[in-house]
Design brief:
CATH superfamily of the largest domain: Immunoglobulins
CATH topology of the largest domain: Immunoglobulin-like
Largest sheet: 4 strands, antiparallel
CATH class of the largest domain: Mainly Beta
Strand order of the largest sheet: 3-2-1-4
Mean pLDDT: 80
Helix content: under 10%
Distance between the termini: 47 Å
Number of helices: 1
Shape: elongated
Structural class: mainly beta
Oligomer: single chain
Low-confidence stretches: none
Length: 125
């Protein structure tokens, strides 16, 4: 179901037919908001939640990347991807990842945790 605001009311749109059904009426004295909700598309994803619980530093990195995380989070797998999409398996040891062997450039770190998957853009000096 998709809900949208049209002049004078909030409507539900049937995705298969495109028919709009009035859900609620608004008047000029009401505060009208434009809201759109598409079924199956989360407003707040797991990555947003995990980003608040996991911190990476320094970024840009030189020899190692430090990972600060909540005690409720367990890292199951860590991978670093280069700009060509090649995956490099890495280990998080004592909350650090050794990156001294990487060339300078842009990378993406992918952490699989017990609470979901988080990706983070990283820069290697």
């Amino acid at each position: 179901m998709i809900c949208i605001w049209l002049a004078g009311g909030i409507h539900s749109i049937d995705k298969s037919t495109g028919a709009a059904t009035l859900v609620g009426v608004t008047t000029p004295l009401d505060v009208e908001l434009t809201i759109m909700s598409i079924e199956g598309v989360p407003i707040l994803g797991v990555s947003d939640f995990l980003a608040d619980l996991i911190t990476f530093y320094p970024n840009p990195m030189i020899d190692q990347l430090n990972v600060e995380l909540s005690s409720a989070i367990t890292i199951l797998k860590a991978s670093i991807y280069d700009v060509l999409g090649r995956s490099i398996e890495v280990e998080v040891v004592n909350k650090t990842i050794n990156v001294e062997y990487l060339r300078s450039g842009i990378y993406v770190l992918r952490l699989e945790t017990n609470l979901g998957v988080l990706t983070q853009k990283l820069v290697k000096d």
